Amino acid sequence: MLIKNISYVKNVKKILQSHFEVSKYQDEIKNGGIIVIQNLFDKKKINQLKKYLIEIGKNSLPEYHPVKVGAPNHHRLVNNDPRSIVQCAFHQFSFYRWNQDLMDVFSIFEKGFWIKNILSNRNKNDFLKINPDLKDDFVARVSIQFYPSGIGYLNEHSDPVGEHQISAPLVIMSDKGPKKDFSTGGSYFYGKNKKKIFVEDIAKVGDLVIYDSSLPHGVELVDKKIKNKNWIDFKGRWTAVLATNKVDGSKSTRNSIDLQKK
């Protein structure tokens, strides 16, 4: 299925309080629509958060922790790791609701989880408990991803959707264009005639982009023509995924599928 239309929402109360609006947007998403909720998040907070993460990324060693109840907040560097389900190159910062952090990351993005849960026919605060059950199959995670210019990409893939989530929405955290955070590439879907629709071409910093995550999508190499490329300068593209992930070892839903892996 290709992306068929893009709807812009300025008044988020329409989704949070109206069953009619919820049903309308659910149908749009299931039929190949993109919902862009404009200015949902504070741009100043997003810029502060990026500076905070850069300090963490530059001054502490990256490490891996599986997705599970009680996992610590952490950051990891993924660079064409053959163990990855979907091949990619990005620096990932993971935050869980049960951990405390200086920026209180979940409070920044909480509205996004509320909207996603409501559109998924769930209670607003599902998966957002501070004291989750050790038997839970799913956990909420803010996955902030940095794609370095000339290096960062994510293979085209399909993510699982179902009772746990209708979408894994994207938060726009970078400006795209000449003399901005990055100039070319980034997250994309396919529209009419299988032409790529780039997320940062249709949305701005502070927007939430909701879509059917099972549709083919990926991240085209960011700033592919750049010559001075490295991980340490943190020049490139930032985004956040508001995910409801299955815990490590759970068989409650399928894994993501890399559509380019041979």
Descriptive labels:
262 residues; alpha+beta; Jelly Rolls; 13-stranded mixed sheet; 5 helices; 13 strands; 20% helix; 28% strand; globular
Show the helix and strand layout.
Elements: E1 5-9, H1 13-17, H2 19-30, E2 33-37, H3 43-59, E3 74-79, E4 88-96, H4 105-119, E5 138-148, E6 153-158, E7 170-172, E8 186-190, E9 196-198, H5 199-202, E10 208-210, E11 217-220, E12 236-246, E13 257-258
Parallel strand pairs: 1-2
Antiparallel strand pairs: 2-10, 3-4, 4-5, 4-6, 5-12, 6-11, 6-13, 7-10, 7-12, 8-9, 8-11
Report on the structure:
The chain is of the alpha+beta class. The chain has a single domain (5-258), classed as Jelly Rolls (Sandwich). The protein is built from five helices and 13 strands. The protein has helices at 13-17, 19-30, 43-59, 105-119, 199-202, and strands at 5-9, 33-37, 74-79, 88-96, 138-148, 153-158, 170-172, 186-190, 196-198, 208-210, 217-220, 236-246, 257-258. Strands 1, 2, 3, 4, 5, 6, 7, 8, 9, 10, 11, 12 and 13 form a 13-stranded mixed β-sheet that branches. Strand 3 and strand 4 form a beta hairpin.
- CATH topology group: Jelly Rolls
Low-confidence stretches: none
Overall morphology: globular
What's the CATH first level?
Answer: Mainly Beta
Quickly describe the structure:
With 262 residues, the chain is an alpha+beta fold. The chain has one domain (5-258): Sandwich (Jelly Rolls), CATH 2.60.120.330.
